[in-house]
């Protein structure tokens, strides 16, 4: 079943730009341009694109904040802009950059306000709250005012608040931004559980690890249009992107020469080896370990912006 449907959706803005000393020109910007896609119930889709690509405009239309200039849009069976109250019961939204919690209230009171706002039946509220408190380890934080929470704790609170009314669709905008590795992993683990339990997720992020760990499907948009729709290995292939194996050798060596690999940098006994991102690092690690004694190694993912830029630029490898 399709939970999100966009059929030839366009959203334009009129912007005024300076043209000469006194004159101003009005210009139309198409933030979203003839965009069509569907998301099935239960999917977790990464929605990516460079700055200004039209991601926020799409999300704003899907949450009913913005009305499309043309085209048809449905979320969980309703027209978002026309039926905002019905929509609010079916969706949850989390923005990494801002909180929807009440700053001066303890977390518990913020949740209570969410309960009243959505008129969540007591038994369902109690069950959902207990589940979120357990999965997000919020037990010790319930009586703390939101302003005293760390960023990671606040994000966990925001996730709980967005899910207490059992939304069918969850929109996430940079849910792991600014979090440390432990908090990121905890948020990802929780989101995996939420998605596995049936909630459909649309995730905007600049962190490839979020996508790798959560999404089977990735959509890339640019200039308001879909330029890629498929899985993450396919995106790496299309972007001819590279991961980097960082090896710390026991002794300094000349640049390692292996097929399909290029040394992009050396720092004493440390070497940075670039290899196609869609390939497993295991054979490369084995090949290096066979030739040289190793002290340590790690694998670095490419930045989403680089993958997308390479998709267009067709940067030659090697
Ligand atoms: N209210 C507005 N008025 C005028 N132009 C706008 C408005 N909102 C967005 N735009 C323009 O529409 C285009 C798409 O913007 P949008 O915010 O959707 O991009 P984005 O992909 O979310 O970018 P980012 O990753 O930087 O958040 C940009 O050119 C932006 O300047």
Automatic annotation (TrEMBL):
It is found in: Cell membrane. Residues 4-248 form the ABC transporter domain. Pfam families: ABC_tran. InterPro entries: AAA+_ATPase, ABC_transporter-like_ATP-bd, ABC_transporter_ATP-binding, P-loop_NTPase. GO terms for molecular function: ATP binding; ATP hydrolysis activity. GO terms for biological process: response to antibiotic. It is a peripheral membrane protein. The keyword Signal does not apply. Keywords: Antibiotic resistance, ATP-binding, Nucleotide-binding, Transport. GO terms for cellular component: plasma membrane. This is ABC-2 type transport system ATP-binding protein. It comes from Kitasatospora viridis.
